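Filed under: proteins

Residues; backbone shape codes:
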Amino acid sequence: MKKILQRLLLILIALSTKKVVSQDIHFSQFSETPLLNSPANTGLYNGYTRYTLNYRNQWLSMGNGFGAAFNTGALSVDAGLFKSNRRKAFMGIGATITYDQAGSANLRNTNILLHASGILKVSKRSVLSAGLCGGIVMANANYNNLTFASQFNGNYMVDNAALNGENSFRQYTTADVGVGMAYQYTKVRTDEDHDDIKQFKIAFGAYHLNRPTQDFMPGSAYNLPMRFTTEFTSKFDIKDTRYTFAPMGIMHIQGPAFQAMAGSYLKYRVTTGTKITGQKTIDALGIGLFYRTNDALIPMICYDKGDLSIGLSYDVNLSAYRTASRYMGGFEICLRYNTLANSLFQSRKEFQ
């Protein structure tokens, strides 16, 4: 009976579209999902091509009664076109694929978006960017896995063969559009050993401008609310030390929902590349601590080795759900490969 009630509760939460408004996926390592925060972040980084893979597994503590845990993944690639010191402007192009799967019915949402941006160097240290994205949203599920109250036979059992009396569910595909702007300031102090960098960026994103229609069954259609995101990232190399301080934060507003997250990394530079092998290539170990409002405390660890970076994090649930979750939230991993503008003797020159 307990499992039946759990499943019914999940159905009410997931499918009662008249009372619940869908929200976008989120990652705790938000600095590693820049294209999901603003299309203006496309191509706006120190390098030529960036590949990022993110995976998140959340609410394992919900148990089998709720079906599969929330599994979320993202794959993104972006690059700068026509980037050189001789030009004050260049373009960014990119693409993202995200998916989210959860529940007994394995409800899946898949987004495929193309991104483009225009990036302008407005002064020696300042850069402005504007971007847009567009693509499709697809949703489907295995509805045969669901059970309903009408299939309860009165003897603490569910008869899966019994008619449930529900309308048939369906898959759907719809279009999606977003825009964004960003400003970045960078100050570089160069010496024989490495570059000390002071940098901050603020980016704004607006997604679902066309209010995509969500339509699982007749009479259930509703429009996905627009999401507005403000992201702040920074890094401050501490002069004459091996340490970097990197505070950052993000805020989402989508319909009636509000979410904010903030914290900082402290990174220790293990090794530094030479002038020939790459003045800006470093190996660094970082630890971070972040807080998501009314939700979780999130420790993080990352390791940067030249062009490659790996990050791990875990959400310690502090919300009202912590009694059931036993403080367990979500595990997350990120892999990033960024072809940096490293060596002084490369034919291409970095934009900085």
